[in-house]
């Protein structure tokens, strides 16, 4: 009888432990989900906070002229900055800082996200991915394999694709800043404009992989921890097949490749326009203003900003929702380019 009672109490405790473990796992899953949502939400708020003043200042209402004047004062640089307003300014050649930071940061995010995608996320098929996304958007459930759903797989490989384009952009801008542009020694920019540019080139690449950034972070931490604990010699060998590394990018679908075509169309024309602007400094005196000619300069007055807008349009084309981090990032670039 005592044994039965003891056995019964043991079963009760065992059931209680199972229930507690189940509850803790559910609570952990909820916390993990909430943590995954925090970063995209913070980025959206940051982009909206950066975009909203520019949009408000663009409204043609006399009472808002003061806001337009303030923002224009922060955005002025080079020839359009008055020589008398040198307070809180930095040399314009500090543009180089943006692209050094952006190149290092984007490369880091691209390499780690790509490694995570190749190691942890199976390739995604276009038909399966889009049917799952459609089911998700209309309220259905996403099919999962292990802990990774089809929707999550698509988001990870999409992030790799977007970061590749961002890498192409920042590396080209780094090259142009060093070898193409010849900044005048007297050219200045406002310190707030400098901080805004630094924020943009840190937040924009992160926005492109915001949906999977936390998973990539956990993957990297586990990899480093494993390396420290078991040592280099005991790490499992990783076989890399080149086709398997790039093949999932070709399965993302036509929408991404059309967007990438628009991106590189703007990318090529921006490179040409920057080359034209850089050549003016070689052929003229440092402080003399010259009207550029050629390429899109024959059509619009600021084709380098127009081409930047075309590059940014892809961020909006790839968005599944109107208020995604990438959409807000693209909107920020378009608004700021149009107002400078």
Automatic annotation (TrEMBL):
<dbReference type="Pfam" id="PF02544">
    <property type="entry name" value="Steroid_dh"/>
</dbReference>
<dbReference type="GO" id="GO:0006488">
    <property type="term" value="P:dolichol-linked oligosaccharide biosynthetic process"/>
</dbReference>
<keyword id="KW-1133">Transmembrane helix</keyword>
<keyword id="KW-0472">Membrane</keyword>
<dbReference type="GO" id="GO:0005783">
    <property type="term" value="C:endoplasmic reticulum"/>
</dbReference>
<protein>
    <submittedName>
        <fullName>Polyprenol reductase 2 isoform X2</fullName>
    </submittedName>
</protein>
<dbReference type="GO" id="GO:0003865">
    <property type="term" value="F:3-oxo-5-alpha-steroid 4-dehydrogenase activity"/>
</dbReference>
<dbReference type="GO" id="GO:0016095">
    <property type="term" value="P:polyprenol catabolic process"/>
</dbReference>
<feature type="transmembrane region" description="Helical">
    <location>
        <begin position="192"/>
        <end position="220"/>
    </location>
</feature>
<feature type="domain" description="3-oxo-5-alpha-steroid 4-dehydrogenase C-terminal">
    <location>
        <begin position="254"/>
        <end position="327"/>
    </location>
</feature>
<feature type="transmembrane region" description="Helical">
    <location>
        <begin position="94"/>
        <end position="119"/>
    </location>
</feature>
<dbReference type="InterPro" id="IPR001104">
    <property type="entry name" value="3-oxo-5_a-steroid_4-DH_C"/>
</dbReference>
<feature type="transmembrane region" description="Helical">
    <location>
        <begin position="45"/>
        <end position="74"/>
    </location>
</feature>
<keyword id="KW-0812">Transmembrane</keyword>
<dbReference type="InterPro" id="IPR039698">
    <property type="entry name" value="Dfg10/SRD5A3"/>
</dbReference>
<comment type="pathway">
    <text>Protein modification; protein glycosylation.</text>
</comment>
